[in-house]
Amino acid sequence: MLPLEFINQLSELLPADRIYTDPVECYTYAYDNSRKIFPPEAVVFPLTTEEVVAIVSLCNTNKIPLTPRGRGTGTAGGSLPEKGGIALSLERMVRIIRVDPANRVVVAEPGVLNQEIQNAVKPYGFFWPPDPSSAAFSTIGGNLATSAGGPHAVKYGTTRDHVLGLKGVTGAGEVIKTGCYTTKGVVGYDLTRLLIGSEGTLAVITEATLKLTPLPEKQGGLVAYYCDAISCAAAIVAIMGIPRGPSALEFLDAGSLSLIRARFPDLLPTNCQAMLMIEVDGSQNEISETINGILSVCRNSGLLQAEQVINSESLWKARKALSPLLRDIAPKKINEDVVVPVNTLPQFLDELTQLATQYRIVNVNFGHAGNGNIHVNLLIDPDDIDENYRAERCLNEIFDLVIRLNGTLSGEHGIGSEKRAYIPKEIDSTTLTLMKRIKQLFDPNDILNPGKLFP
Amino acid sequence: MLPLEFINQLSELLPADRIYTDPVECYTYAYDNSRKIFPPEAVVFPLTTEEVVAIVSLCNTNKIPLTPRGRGTGTAGGSLPEKGGIALSLERMVRIIRVDPANRVVVAEPGVLNQEIQNAVKPYGFFWPPDPSSAAFSTIGGNLATSAGGPHAVKYGTTRDHVLGLKGVTGAGEVIKTGCYTTKGVVGYDLTRLLIGSEGTLAVITEATLKLTPLPEKQGGLVAYYCDAISCAAAIVAIMGIPRGPSALEFLDAGSLSLIRARFPDLLPTNCQAMLMIEVDGSQNEISETINGILSVCRNSGLLQAEQVINSESLWKARKALSPLLRDIAPKKINEDVVVPVNTLPQFLDELTQLATQYRIVNVNFGHAGNGNIHVNLLIDPDDIDENYRAERCLNEIFDLVIRLNGTLSGEHGIGSEKRAYIPKEIDSTTLTLMKRIKQLFDPNDILNPGKLFP
Q1: What residue stretches are annotated with the FAD-binding PCMH-type domain (chains A, B) (predicted)?
Q2: Among A188-197, B257-266, B302-311, B324-333, which is the least confidently predicted range?
Q3: Interface test with B, best of A189, A412, A449 (most B CBs within 10 A)
Q4: Does A347 touch chain B (CB under 8 A)?
Q5: Which of A32, A438, B167, B374 has its CA 20 to 30 A from that of B281?
C-alpha cells in the first residue's frame, strides 16, 4: 500500500482528474497483451516533462516503484507494474510538436500513436518505418521502449534505426537530452540507442525526434505455396541471398495454415503445408524487376505454386487473421519471437517440429522470415498442469536451439517479465553485470520498472 | 616514463617484435591527421582478444594510459596518446573471420581496412556502407570508434546503422559481447551503439559483426553550377525535400572552386560560385526517374547550368582533389565538420561568410550537404599569432551558430582532443555527467584514451 503522505504529495503535483487511486480504475492499467495482471496502486497522467520530473523525483525520494506505460499492447509484460506502486501512463502526452518534412523529421511526445505519426507525415510523402502489428493503437513511446519492429523491418530496420534524439527523465529525476536533430552526429556517447529497447528501466522518454523515410511509390506482392516447411525455408534463404530483396517476407507454417483454412476455407491450395507472403516496393519497374528476381529463386522441388497478388490488402488478409485466431483457440498460448540467422531457418524449423513432437505440444509458427524472426506459439491449456510443465521444458530447449544457431531470444517483443529467466542463455555474466550497473547509474533506487529485463 | 618493471611485465605478454619501446619507432605512432604529435612510450601489437585482455589488465593494474589506434587517419586526435603511456595498435588484427552472404554479415577484426571489407563482399553483390574519404586505408576499428560517415551517408546512414554486434575489452580488462548476429534483436541494453562513436574511451573493440547492404546496380550523376552559395543552398533544401533522393549530395563553395580552378583550369564555368555534385543509384530506370526529379527542383534563378555526368569518376574528380589542395596551401588549416538541419543551410552559409569577413579569415566550405554536414575550413598561417587568435574567436562563433540552428558540432570526425572544449555548447551538464559516469563504469581507472571526448 502506498503511504498516505505519499498520495497527498502526489496530489499536489497533479489535478485530481490525472491521478487514479481507486482500485477499480487502477485495475484497467493492470494488464497488457501478455495477459498477466498486476494492478498498480495509483495511475498518474503527466502532460509535460516537468510533471514527469516531479512524479519521478517524488517516487525516487520515497522509493516507490514506477512503471511507464503507453497503451499496454506489449506482449512481454514490460509495462506491468509487477511490484505495485505507480503506473505512469503517458497516454495524455499526445502532442506532435513539429512536422518538418524539409529535414525529414517529426518531433512528438510519447503518447502519440504510431498511426498518428504516419497520418501526420504521409501528406509529405514520408513514413516512419517501425510497423508492429499494433501500429494503429500502440504509442511511439512503447515502440521506442521495445525497439519495435514489424514485417517491413526486413527492408527498413527497426525502431532504433529511425530515431535521431530523445528527451528523457532518469530514475533520479534528471532530464537528459540525447542525440541530435540532424541525420549525422557523433558528439558524445550514443545514449539515444541506449534508451531505445530499455523498456522504461533507464528513463521515461518524454519527447522523441524521429527520422522519416520516403514512402515507396507502390507495393506489389507474391504468394508462394510449398508442400512442406523445409522447402519453404530453403526458398527464404534463396530469396534473402539475392541483393534486391523484398520489403516484407512472411512465413506461415502448416499449423498457421490450418487455422486460416478454418476461417477462409477456399483461400489456400489443399496440399499446401507452408506459405510465403512476399511484398516488394518501389517504382513499377523496380517492383517488376524485384518480383522476377524473387520468382526465379523461390522455385524449388517443394513449390506448389507462386502467384502475383495485385491487391496488397488481400496479400495481408490471411496473415492478419492469424493472431486473433490463435487467441481464440488458445487464450493462454505461449508466444515467443525468437530470431535465427536466415540460413539456419530450415534446420530451426525442422528441430522445432521434433521438439514439439517430443513434448507433445501443439505448435504454430509464423513470422518475419526475412529477418529470421519467427513467432513460435505453443498452444497450451492453462488448466493442464502436465502440459504446462512439458511446454516449459520444450520452450527451454527451443531457446537453447536458438542460441546454438547463433540467434537471439527476442526480435521485437522485448524481455519484460516473460523472458528474463532466459537472458543468461544469451548474455554472458560480465556483459549482464555491466548492463545492471548502467541501470544503477540511471536509476540508483531501482524505481523505474523494477524487476524487468534482468534475470 | 614507463616503469621498468611494467615494461618487463609487458614483455612477458608479447614477443619482442610486437612491442616497440625505442622512441624512434614509437614516434611513428605519435600522430594522426589532426597533425598534432604525442609520442607514446611504448607501442604494442596484439593479435587476439586474449592478448588485448592481458595488455589492458596490466595497464589497468598499473594505471598506465592506453590509447587504441587503427591506422591514424582520424582528424580529431582521437587516436593520439596525449597522456603518454601505451599506443595499442590494432593494425595486426587483420582477420576477416567470416563472410556470410546468405545472412548478409561479415565478421572481422578491427585492423581490417574498410576497403578490404568491400573487396571481400563485393563478389556476392554486397557492400558495407560507411565510406569515409580514408576508406582505402582506414580500419573498421577506427570507423567504429568514430561512427564514420562519408558522402553516401545521405542515403545509407553512418557506421552505427550497419553493425549487428561487437566484442570488446573494457578498461577493467573484461571481455564483453554486445548485440547479436541477426538483423533483429532486443535482448538487453544496446551496448553495440554505446561503443560505436565512443572513440576507444569505453572499450577496445576486438571483433565486429557488420551488416551488409546490397550493392546498387548502377550509379548516375549530375553536376549543377550556381552563381552564388545561397541559391545553391536553396537547391539543396529543395532536393532533400523530394522523397526520392540522391545517394550523395556534395556541396562546394566559391573558395573550394577557386582551389579546383587552380588545378583544373577548364573544369568549371567561369561565373560559377557554388556547385553541387549529385550521385544517384539504383536500376537504370530508377536513376533516370531520380535524376529527372532532382533536375526539376534544383533549377532556381541562381542556376547556371546542370548537366548529367556519364562517368562517375569524373563526377568525383574535383571533390577528391580538394582536401590535398587545402593541405598544400594551409597545412595547419582548422577543419571542422559541423552539421545543421538541411533547411537552415542557406542561413548557415550566409552567416558563415559574415563571420569569416568579420574576423578576416580565409574560409573554404564543402561537404555532405544532403546531411547538412559541412566541412568548414579556416585557412590560417600557424605563425601568425593574431590570425590564430581571430580564428579561434571565429570558430567559437561558428559553433554557437551551429547550435543556434539546432545542429551538431561533429557529423563524422568525432570529438577526440580537437573539439572537447566545445562539448558543453551542445550537451547539457546533466547528460554529460551521466556520460562521464558511464565512462567510469567501463573504465574505472581512466586508462582508455584518457582525456578524450570530454571537456
Answers
A1: 36-215
A2: B324-333
A3: A189
A4: no
A5: B374
Whether residue B451 is contained in a domain is answered as no
Q: Is the pLDDT of residue B318 over 90?
A: no
Of how many residues is chain A composed? 455
CATH of the domain at A194: 3.30.465.10
Q: What's the whole-number mean pLDDT along residues B136-162?
A: 97
B342 contacts in chain A (CB < 8 Å): 102-103
Average pLDDT over residues A215-227: 93
CA distance A261 to B68: 60
Q: Mind listing the pLDDT tens digit for each residue in B7-26? A: 999 999 999 999 999 999 99
Residue A323: per-residue pLDDT: 74
CB proximity under 8 Å: B 348-407 to A:
368, 371-373, 406-407
Picking from A44, A71, A89, the residue at the C-terminal end of a domain is A89
**Rounded CA separation B100/B120 (Å):** 10
| A194 and A235 housed in the same domain | no
Tell me how far apart the alpha carbons of residues A229 and A354 are, in angstroms, rounded to a whole number.
13
For residue B266, give how far its alpha carbon lies from the nearest alpha carbon of chain A (Å): 34
Domain assignment present for A455: no
Considering the domain architecture, whether residues B199 and B100 belong to the same structural domain is answered as yes
CB B394 within 8 A of CB B355: yes
Helix axes of A284-298 and A229-241: crossing angle, nearest 10 degrees: 130
Contact with chain A for residue B153, Cβ under 8 A: yes
pLDDT at B315: 73
> Looking at residue A277, what is its pLDDT?
95
Residues A85, A154, single domain; the answer is no
The confidence band for B330, taking pLDDT boundaries of 50, 70 and 90, is confident
Q: CB A408 to CB B242 under 8 A?
A: no
Asked if residue B452 belongs to a domain, the reply is: no
Determine, for residues A177 and B100 on separate chains, whether the beta-carbon distance falls below 8 Å. Answer: no
Residues ≥6 apart with Cβ < 8 Å to B345 = B233, B236, B237, B251, B369, B372, B374
- For the stretch A392-430, pLDDT in tens is 999 999 999 999 999 999 999 999 998 999 999 999 999
Q: How far off is chain A from B42, nearest CA to CA, in Å?
A: 28
Q: What is the DSSP secondary-structure string of B266-333? A: TSS-TT--EEEEEEEEESHHHHHHHHHHHHHHH--TTEEEEEEES-HHHHHHHHHHHHHHHHHH-TT-
- How confident is the model at residue A313, as a pLDDT? 75
| pLDDT score for B203 | 98
Is there a single domain that holds both residue B102 and residue B183?
Answer: yes
DSSP state of B406: T
ipTM attached to this prediction: 0.96
Q: Is the CB of B186 less than 8 angstroms away from the CB of A427?
A: no
Domain containing A280: what range?
216-321
Shortest distance, CA B4 to any CA of chain A (angstroms)? 32
Residues A409 and A317 grouped into a single domain:
no
Pair (B415, B303) in one structural domain = no
What's the total number of domains in chain B?
Answer: 3
Answer whether residue B140 is part of any domain.
yes
Closest-CA distance of chain A to residue B25, Å = 32
Q: Which position has the grid cell 558511464?
A: B438
